[in-house]
Amino acid sequence: MQVEFITVDVFTEQRFGGNPLAVVLDARALTTAQMQSIAAEFNLSETTFVLPPKDASHTAEVRIFTPRAELPFAGHPNVGTAFVLAGLGQSRGRAVGEPLIFEEKAGLVRLDLIKEAGACVGARLAPPQPFARGDDIAPDIVAAACSLRPDDIEIANHKPCIASCGNPVVFAELKTRPALTAARPRTEVFTEHLGADRAAGLLLYVQDMTGGFDLQARMFAPLHGITEDPATGSANVALVGLMASLRPGRDLRLNLRISQGVDMGRPSLLEATAEKHGGKITGTSIGGRCVTMQHGTLAL
C-alpha cells in the first residue's frame, strides 16, 4: 500500500525554521496503530492524518499524533494541514471552501486561510474549546522540571498554572531571558508531578519586546516524546487567553507576537489574539505562515 504525505514547516516563512509537520493525505486505510507507528517513524512533534468528514458540511476529520500518543487538538498541525489542503486544491483545480472546519477529538476547529496574491501562505485557527484556567502549580515543581531555581519563576503576574483551549498545558512566566535560555526539561520530574494525563507539556515565557516580539517562549513535552517543541499553537492560543484574563479592564482585544524555537535553532513566529468582553474571554485565535518541504509516499 502506498500512502502519500507532504511535510511543511509551520509558523515560519523560511525553510528549516518553524515547526515541521507531516501530513498524511488519505488515512482511510490506516488503523490507529499504524498511524501511531507512522508518527513515531517521522519523529516530528506531530503528524496529522486526513480522513473524510463525518459531516459532509465540514472539510475533513483530522487526527493528530505525537511520536508517543494521539492528541485531541494541537495548533501547528491544524495550521499546516489547512495550508497543505489549500495548496493541493489550488494545484489540482479543486478550491478548498472557507472557512475550513476540521473534526477533531476536542471538537470542531475553524481555520481561515492567509493569502497573498491569491495564494495561500498560512492559516489562522479558532480553537475547539473556550479558554479555561485550571489548577495552580507550585513554582518549585516548575523550576525542578526545567532545571531552574524557584526564584527564576515570576509570580507577580500569576502563579504557574494549567490553562487550555482544548489541550491543557502548564504555563509559567520567567523573570529573565537568560533563565529561559538555561531551561532544560527533566523527564523524571514531569513523570512524578506533571503527568501526561494532567497536561500535555509546560510552556515557559518571558516578556521580551526585542526584535518586534511581545514574548519569547519555550515548550517542553517529554512525556509525549517531544523534548522541546519549536512552535506550539495550542499552548500559545491558551497563553494569549491567560494574559488577556490578567489585563485590567473588562473589555479589550489583545494581540501578541510570540517568538518560539529560537533556542533550538528553529525560530518561529506565532500571532495570537484574544477578545475579552464583560471580564470574560470570549474568543482566541492563532495563526502563522507555512512553507512546503517534501512530497513523498509511505510504503506500507
Secondary-structure blueprint of this entry?
Elements: E1 2-10, E2 19-24, H1 32-42, E3 46-51, E4 60-65, E5 70-71, H2 75-92, E6 100-104, E7 107-116, E8 119-126, E9 132-136, H3 139-145, E10 153-154, E11 161-164, E12 169-174, H4 177-182, H5 187-193, E13 202-207, E14 215-221, E15 226-229, H6 233-246, E16 252-260, E17 268-277, E18 280-299
Parallel strand pairs: 2-3, 4-6, 12-13, 14-16
Antiparallel strand pairs: 1-2, 1-18, 3-4, 4-5, 6-7, 7-8, 8-18, 9-11, 10-12, 11-12, 13-14, 14-15, 16-17, 17-18
Helix pairs in contact: 2-6
Features:
eight-stranded mixed barrel, Diaminopimelate Epimerase, Chain A, domain 1, 2 domains, alpha+beta, 300 residues, globular
Strand order, largest beta sheet? 1-2-3-4-6-7-8-18
Task: Please report the number of helical segments.
Answer: 6
Total of domains = 2
- Largest pleated sheet: 8 strands, mixed, barrel
Strand content: 35-45%
Structural class: alpha+beta
- What distance separates the N and C termini? 5 Å
Shape: globular
CATH topological fold name of the largest domain: Diaminopimelate Epimerase, Chain A, domain 1
Summed over residues and divided by their number, the pLDDT gives a mean of: 96
Fourth CATH level, the homologous superfamily of the largest domain: Diaminopimelate Epimerase, Chain A, domain 1
* CATH architectural category of the largest domain: Roll
Radius of gyration: 18 Å
CATH first level of the largest domain: Alpha Beta
Q: What string gives the helices and strands in order?
A: EEHEEEHEEEEHEEEHHEEEHEEE
Helix content: 10-25%
Number of strands: 18
The parts where pLDDT drops under 50 for at least 5 residues are none
